[in-house]
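[step 3/7] fold_predict: job queued, chain A
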Amino acid sequence: MDDTTRAAMQSYCRLTEALRAAIEDPHRSEVEEALTSAAYEANRLMGAAELLGRPQHEITALVHEINQDKYPREPAAEPQPTIWLVTRGEDPGAIPCVDEATARAYAEERYREDEDPDDPAVLRWDEDRELMDDSIPGSYQGMGAGWKIAETPVIRPADLPDAD
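[step 4/7] structure written:
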């Protein structure tokens, strides 16, 4: 683990400790300042380490790596399955696909079905997983084709909170 990541994870642990202290004694005078300071520090250092927005399981694994005695690993849970959803514009519906390649192929095929066959599309995917048509002329160049894909977890009964 590099020094930047280690510092970010240590600040994350300090934030966790500040939160624990606030929960245990919320009326302590310095609780708000300690939480605010720890949160700003963790945000700054995790941003520098490019860890913001990473899945929680990755952050947890890094915490365990730097502090194994304080944060022992829990038994590995069964990985949550995911599916890929294909959406078009503001349409509230989504088409589930088994993997990213299938989702991309489906969106490209559907886009081509709607376009003029005499004016072939030049398709590519941008970093936000949005389908782009580079054959669109003029001021519309670089605009999305209206199709996006996204990976999302499949919710299982075990993922729901207990209804006690």
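[step 5/7] annotate
The longest strand covers residues 144-153.
Residues 3-24 form the longest helix (22 residues).
exit 0
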